[in-house]
Design goal:
By secondary structure, this protein is α/β, with parallel strands linked by helices. It has a single domain, classed as Aminopeptidase (3-Layer(aba) Sandwich). The protein is built from five helices and eleven strands; from the N terminus they run ββαβββαββββαβαβα. It has a seven-stranded mixed beta sheet, with helices on both faces. A two-stranded antiparallel ribbon has the order 4-5. Keywords: Hydrolase.
C-alpha cells in the first residue's frame, strides 16, 4: 500500500451483508506535509486519530469475516467524518493545539486535500457498500467504530462506550441493549455528544440512503493496548454478529434527519 494512500479496504465476505468503517483509523501524513508544523508528540494524541480503533476494527473484520474500510490519513490533515462544507473539515486549532500547516491555507490546497484524501476515502466507502449490497442481495448493515478520550477539559467521561446516532433507531436500540445486558459497563446514548451531524459519514452513506447503521465510540483508555483491544473484540464481535442476523436491519428505510431536510 503506498504511503500516501487515502484508504485501505480489508477484504471479507461481501455476502455477509455487513460493512465496518474506521474514519479516524490512523495518524499518518504524507512526508511533504512535515507534520503540519506540529511536534511528533501531537500525533500520539486523539487530535490526530482515534486511539485503538485500527487494531480493533482489524480484529473485528477478521473475526466476522466482513469487509472494512479504514482511512489512512490523520484527521489533522482533513477530517473524513465531516461534510465538505463543514467549517471543521480542516481544523486550525484542535483541543488547544494550533495547527500551523492548516492556517493560512489556500483554496487550492483545500481542494487538493479533498481530492487526494477525503473524496477517495468516501468513494471507497460507497463502492464497498455497493459491492456488499450486490453480493448479499440485501441492504448492508453499516457499523462505524470510533474512540473518545476518558476526560474532556478536566471533566471525566464515565461511559465505557457510547452509541451516537441521528434518527434511525433500528440498529441503535438493539446495540445499546446488547451492550448493557451483561451489566458491567455504562453505555452512553448520544453521550458524550450528539450523533446528528449533517454531512458526516453516517449521514452521507446511511441516513441519506436509508441503510440501517450505528456509530460506536469506545473510551480510549479501554482499547489503548493489545489486551484492551482483545477484550473489546470479544465483547463486540458476538453483538455485531447478532445485529447482522436481524432481517429488519437489511431493509431500506429512510428516516428524516434531526439536522434538517435532505437536499433531494
Amino acid at each position: 500500500m503506498p504511503e500516501t494512500a487515502s484508504f485501505e479496504i480489508i477484504e471479507g465476505n461481501p455476502a455477509a451483508g455487513l460493512v465496518l468503517l474506521a474514519d479516524h483509523a490512523t495518524n499518518r501524513l504524507p512526508p511533504e506535509y512535515d507534520r503540519l508544523g506540529l511536534p511528533e508528540s501531537a500525533f500520539a494524541r486523539h487530535i490526530a486519530y482515534d486511539i485503538g480503533v485500527e487494531p480493533l476494527v482489524r480484529r473485528l473484520a477478521k473475526r466476522l469475516g466482513v469487509p472494512a474500510v479504514l482511512s489512512c490519513f490523520s484527521r489533522l490533515l482533513i477530517d473524513p467524518n465531516r461534510g465538505e462544507d463543514d467549517p471543521t473539515l480542516i481544523m486550525k486549532i484542535s483541543d488547544g493545539a494550533i495547527i500551523p500547516g492548516n492556517h493560512p491555507i489556500t483554496p487550492q490546497e483545500w481542494e487538493s486535500r479533498l481530492n487526494r484524501f477525503h473524496r477517495p476515502y468516501h468513494r471507497a466507502v460507497s463502492q464497498t457498500i455497493a459491492a456488499v449490497g450486490t453480493a448479499s442481495g440485501k441492504a448492508p448493515l453499516i457499523i462505524s467504530v470510533h474512540s473518545y478520550t476518558p476526560a474532556w477539559k478536566g471533566v471525566p467521561r464515565p461511559w465505557h462506550a457510547a452509541i451516537l446516532w441521528d434518527n434511525d433507531p433500528r440498529a441503535v436500540h438493539p446495540l445499546i441493549e446488547a451492550l448493557e445486558a451483561p451489566g458491567d459497563i455504562l453505555v452512553g446514548d448520544n453521550e458524550p455528544y450528539d450523533g446528528a451531524l449533517r454531512g458526516d459519514t453516517m449521514f452521507r452513506h446511511c441516513m441519506e440512503t436509508g441503510l440501517a447503521h450505528a456509530l460506536i465510540e469506545v473510551r480510549q483508555d479501554l482499547i489503548g493496548d493489545d489486551s484492551g483491544v482483545a477484550e473489546w473484540d470479544e465483547r463486540l464481535g458476538p453483538i455485531f454478529a447478532g445485529l447482522n442476523a436481524r432481517p429488519e436491519l437489511h431493509e431500506i428505510k429512510r428516516y428524516p434527519s434531526r439536522t434538517g431536510p435532505y437536499a433531494f
